[in-house]
Amino acid sequence: xxxxxxxxxxxxxxxxxxxxxxxxxxxxxxxxxxxxxxxxxxxxxxxxxxxxxxxxxxxxxxxxxxxxxxxxxxxxxxxxxxxxxxxxxxxxxxxxxxxxxxxxxxxxxx
Length: 110
Description:
This protein has three helices and six strands; from the N terminus they run ααββββββα. It has helices at 7-16, 24-27, 97-109, and strands at 33-38, 43-46, 68-71, 77-80, 84-90, 93-96. The strands form two sheets. It has a four-stranded antiparallel beta sheet with strand order 2-1-5-6. The chain is globular.
């Protein structure tokens, strides 16, 4: 079963990819920008702050209503569609965290 995208999911993914190029702090120098892919629609959403500015890390608050499934009374995003995948954009292409980590590793040694 696929769980909705949430801060807990992002925290777990960051722990899994720690130090391996699959986190924003590990690959931003290579031109990767945090983003989300809706696997269902194939639409890519760059990670944004709630005011629309690009965020330097994965952040749910800037996601559009079309993918948000739950908000706190304050307006913060609690959960988004389970079909969202966190990853990165680079030169117009979406990379999963694992693909970004592989690319970062290859580019660092290549």
